[in-house]
Amino acid sequence: MLTLMRNVKMSQGLTRLLTASALCIGLLAGCASAPVASDYAQEKPVLDIAKYFNGTIDAWGMFTDRSGRVVKRFTVVMNCHWDGNVGTLDEDFTYSDGTTQKRSWTLTKNGNAVVGKAADVVGEAQGQQAGNAFNMKYTLQVPVDGKTYDMQFDDWMYLMDDKTMLNRAVMSKFGIELGQVTLSFRKRN
Predict the structure, then answer these.
(1) What is the pLDDT of residues 11-50, one digit of tens each?
(2) Backbone angles phi, psi at 113, to 5 degrees
(3) SS3 178
(4) What is the rounded CA–CA span in Å between residue 82 and residue 49?
(5) What is the pLDDT of residues 53-81, one digit of tens each?
(6) Which of 31, 50, 155, 156 is the most exposed place for a label (fewest CB within 10 A)?
């Protein structure tokens, strides 16, 4: 009988341990959920992408690989204008190795939702703005050593003041992070 009572107590202890472990895993998983634009709804200053991306904007950025090593640096001059709820963002990139690239985005704004298109974007980019943040997810055709790869981007922009915005994009393939793009935007007068 004593042995049976010990086994029951050990079983109860094991059950409590497993329950506590499951709760901890659940809490950690909840803490690790990806952010969404609405998480920043109360942040100031409030970003209106049609207002910020209007006129000429200068940007400085870098690509880092997944270890954090800077792979390439670049500058961008953006010429932006809007016609109602449709914006055109013409980007001229100059890379640290002397190469250049152009990209032209067409953004269509519908409330806080934004749909984006560009020649090297597969399908449409889906965006959402709230508070000081703007998040856009898309697949970009990225040229690497003479080949082109479809890379997924999770692009976050945060308005710091009326002229400055910070941008961080995670680049992945098949759900595996390959690197990040970091940018600082500065709106001209």
Answers:
(1) 555 456 445 444 444 444 455 688 998 889 989 999 999 9
(2) -90, 145
(3) strand
(4) 10
(5) 999 999 999 999 999 999 999 999 999 99
(6) 31
